[in-house]
């Protein structure tokens, strides 16, 4: 078996490849299929809080955790953004932004969000505070929005968030990925800031199936299938890798991506890590580097839906692409990965610095340890719950917050057992 094949050893997984734990495969089943009142900013029900607790292990071994419900009744929650005071912001795919106060037991809608294209995999997606919040009181949102007719694309914008009102004020669109297309899938759409305050935004390939060198993911004249890098005000950094190439989009930081729905900055190295959906299997964790081509779809470890035929060649067979640090190759069952975070809390000292990724069809959460050279799955969590997991975030109190992909759905937290 070569380094692109998977191994099982004592419950752990070999570096670079992973044995899958998914039963049925489906990278991101749409939950929002029609416009709803929430999609146009109207109130449509409310979430409720709860405090039920279930302990998964009856001992005090390292990593033993209990699961607590923070709030429930959300309509397809997509993003979690913890606040320093213990509250958190939750986006719902249909268009609502919710402010959750676990201490007070309240969930309050935050008006002022943009109108979204809430169809298929689109809607109101990621939410991230400016790294200098509250000095710079901006909340950044990614969302799908329509252009002419039925065409749509991934947008990123920001507004000034007033948590006392609460309200999102003076929202402005910063960037819309080009081109707009007639598809309701693969918007990407996570946000991360680097140490210099630059903004990274993932844009999916919009499900185009022409698996060859002319695919959007391999083109630099389109922003689809790419990671974009912007200034915090939406401008283009002068040191972006393709700013001097006339036929390339100057916003692109890396390309050759299928559908990245997890972005997070490593707490020590500062590198941006990404979790990315494959086609049938071929799911990946990548470490982003300036100007690199990550292969999709000319180099990939997955296969086509149904047939099992390989897509392109292995990353190992091309010197001009960058291989994932962890992958779930064709035949493994895959791990369709959504939101991700690095754990940097005090509740689980043994987890500090590890990369957590939520799984959708795989219905579990994985903990990935190591660095770029040694990354490997070290633990599978929450598999017994049978939850599709959309996002994960570290709370200021050291717990690990998890958004369940359902309607209605809870937001839960993992705390030491």
Explain the overall architecture:
The protein is an all-beta fold and 417 residues long. The protein has one domain (8-416): Neuraminidase (6 Propeller). It is 0% helix and 36% strand. The strands form 7 sheets. Strands 3, 4, 5, 26, 27 and 28 form a 6-stranded antiparallel beta sheet that branches. Residues 1-26, 30-45 and 52-60 have low confidence and may be disordered.
Features:
Neuraminidase, six-stranded antiparallel β-sheet, four-stranded antiparallel β-sheet, mainly beta, 28 strands
Give the radius of gyration: 20 Å
The CATH architecture: 6 Propeller
Shape: globular
Order of helices and strands: EEEEEEEEEEEEEEEEEEEEEEEEEEEE
What is the topological layout?
Layout: E1 8-9, E2 12-13, E3 48-49, E4 53-55, E5 65-74, E6 77-82, E7 88-92, E8 97-101, E9 106-109, E10 124-129, E11 138-146, E12 152-162, E13 167-176, E14 191-193, E15 199-203, E16 226-230, E17 252-255, E18 260-265, E19 272-276, E20 283-287, E21 326-328, E22 337-342, E23 355-359, E24 365-369, E25 376-381, E26 389-394, E27 400-404, E28 409-416
Antiparallel strand pairs: 1-2, 3-5, 4-5, 5-28, 6-7, 7-8, 8-9, 10-11, 11-12, 12-13, 14-15, 15-16, 16-17, 18-19, 19-20, 20-21, 22-23, 23-24, 24-25, 26-27, 27-28
